[in-house]
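Pipeline run #58 for the internal structure catalog. This entry was flagged by the ingest filter as a single-chain record with no existing model, so it goes straight to prediction. Upstream metadata was stripped on purpose; only the residue string is passed forward. Reviewer on rotation: M.T. Logging verbosity set to normal.
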Amino acid sequence: MSKPDAITVKNLTMAYGDYTVMRSLDFSVRPREVKVIMGGSGCGKSTLLKHLVGLEQAEQGEIYYSDERFDPGTHEAERIRRRFGVSFQGGALWSSMTLQENVALPLEQYTDLSASDIRDVVDFKLSLVGLAGFGHRLPSELSGGMQKRAGLARAIALDPHILFFDEPSAGLDPLSSRRLDDLILELRDALGATVIVVTHELASIFAIADSALFLDVASKTALCDGNPNDLLDDPDTDPKVRRFLSRGASDND
């Protein structure tokens, strides 16, 4: 018997009051897959991520993790959310806390580990993202790329089954961005995790995506869902998607 998809989204409509952001979204994410959510400015990429992690309530539709329905605000949703690791733009680190303290926070909140064990886990997670020896530093003492990696260390503190990244490469130079892409793939392999990435960076899309969902701001729905290389090569791919993937995201987002 085949394993269920890690995430299944059915007929999802996202709205703020009378304004519809996206409608009738249907897609799935396989276990250990890297799914990129892409599209132009204002299409709802980050809004979709917020719905997936339960920070926003859907106007209509259903979200499932494996075979469990995810309804924000319920006890079951809180249990499912424990499987998540989330890294928002900028890393969302507490500026007054050291890296060690930032990464330790979810371990202190959600586990019964001793202080000594937490220190060991924190040191290990920081080493995984290339920040061994930087635990005593404050976020302000780090470069932008290092802050991003510190955000990843906190996101993986609880060994999540599913990782969510919101514009992880935003503001980074091309070399730092590529290193971060490589790190995301390494973490996926190390944790056996499923990964959702919101990004408009073309280099990242082609480097890490097993599949990519394109949200169209004009039609307010998804125009395609597939491997970005296949989408670019397929003459039947919607022209908007082909332009997005061939001309660069700078003109679109």
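catalog note: The first helix runs from residue 45 to 52.
catalog note: The longest strand covers residues 19-29.
status: ready for reviewer M.T.
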